[in-house]
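Q: My labmate handed me this sequence with no annotations at all. I'd like to see what the chain might look like in three dimensions before we decide whether it's worth expressing. Could you predict it?
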Amino acid sequence: MPTSLANTKPVDVHGDSILRGGTSKLRRANPPFVQIEITTKCNFKCFYCAGRHMKQENMPWERFVKVLEKLDALPHTVSLQGEGEPTAHPEFWPMVDRLIALGHQPYIITNASLIDVRQAALKFQSIGVSVDTLDETEAHRIGRYKLHNVLRRVHELIAAMGASRIIVHTVSYGQDIEPVKRFVRSLGAKHLIQPIQTKPDYAKNYANEATVTFWRHKNHCRYLELPLMRYFDVTGRESPCCYIKDMSVFDTAERLKTELASGKVPNACVGCREIASPL
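A: Here is what I predict for the chain of 279 residues:
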């Protein structure tokens, strides 16, 4: 791994924060954080994941290369994730190798069920693992299978990489997350908790879990102002964040910014937690 990558600090893949020296603080990503959805396929069925209701496909290698050609020469943190399990892509490790060869720092959030621990320790400066509960029954109910295997892999990753290189990601959907907090503290790892997304293009898939219907919206968004991210979906189409799942209502980032500034909430942004709060 090139020295420049080893000295780069980890970045939250959802854009909620950019981690610097163990603190969580919003600041401009320069260059912007890059996220590439290399697959929508997954071996889990998390109820809150929009990917389980999307076309199941892998990004072809040729399309992946074309996306990388759109990036400038500056080293980027590039997360190979979207609405699927990245390690399920048959060319996942060659994709990681290509990023490293180009001077970029790879990152993922994985469910850890398929991860090659040895390769992860060699090729990732830091890695994210998704853990929402320590209750096996609850994990199975929400579509996160064989929790004991996931927790075993977490311990293996920490043994191979060290706790400081592991970031545990938790989606807060109303469950008791205190046991997860204690678990992560006992590991000595970082912990990022993300509230469940209430945008209609997400929440339509879990109406019984998220019942927010009306929102109060701001007229600006940090993803458009800074910018924070360049997101490429599995088809290779670019957007300014990872929260737009109905790309038929998205035109350009500039149009989103203009509409928000004029007081109009773009269809692509209605209900997004980045600009909205429930009434």
